[in-house]
Amino acid sequence: MSRLAVVCGGSRGIGKAVSRLLAERGCRLAVLSRDEAAAKATAASLPGADHLALSCDVSKEQEVQKAFEAIQKQCGNITYLVNSAGINRDALLLRTKPEDMLALLHTNLLGTMLTCRAALRSMLHTQGAAIVNIGSVVGLRGNAGQCAYSASKAGLEGFTRSLAKEVASRNIRVNLLAPGFVRTDMTAALKDESVLRSIPLGRFGEPDEVAQAVLFLLESPYVTGQVLVVDGGLQLAM
Ligand code: NAP
Q1: Which of 33, 110, 111, 225 is the most exposed place for a label (fewest CB within 10 A)?
Q2: What is the pTM of this model?
Q3: 10: nearest Cα among 30, 37, 25, 27
């Protein structure tokens, strides 16, 4: 029986690359994002058949519950959950509006907690169940101009390690992947040469390169509660 993988934020960027790689490896996908048309377009572009696309704002508990109930009903139990839904609102703290702080925390941190909570019961019934949350290297190291974003990503580290401890006895693994700069819509506006110079490998990562590392975490049966940094060496220079 094929494994069911739910990718939150699967319509674009890193989540889309993860969805494609998992579909190539024979998984059935449930692609979630706020924009249903975009999620549907991604699901339709994947190899294999019967992929599901749903509109779901991960920061809204009722939408998360509804989406995961629909997934259970239409596809059965979940093997993999990848939390790639995320937003950035870069600004110095003095210029960051409280509503932007809340939006970052609600999407990046609360959203991941809500989807994990909604998926866990279903994952108890599958072999090899695993969750990968997408954090960020700035959640580990901090970055001027990204206080609220970093806080939301740093929160994911504590959450991931705690959940890994909670569910290890049920054979569900939970890991955090922390990318550096990756070429997606989120970084499209970053044109500054100094950004490139700060990356030891001298280039942004590609979504496919992050997807490979997500696959490694999903398929490694003895790895849990870990943070895997995929950043071209950026952390070494921070
Ligand atoms: P992206 O290209 O902007 O894609 C973001 C995805 O998240 C889209 O599918 C978007 O779809 C979805 N999304 C945003 N808010 C959502 C919400 N409230 N509910 C459900 N889906 C939502 O960004 P990306 O670069 O792939 O980023 C993916 C993850 O990696 C994020 O968590 C980001 O913080 C993290 N990250 C990225 C980088 C980088 O350099 N790109 C570096 C470190 C960490 P809709 O707009 O349709 O909802």
Answers
A1: 225
A2: 0.98
A3: 30
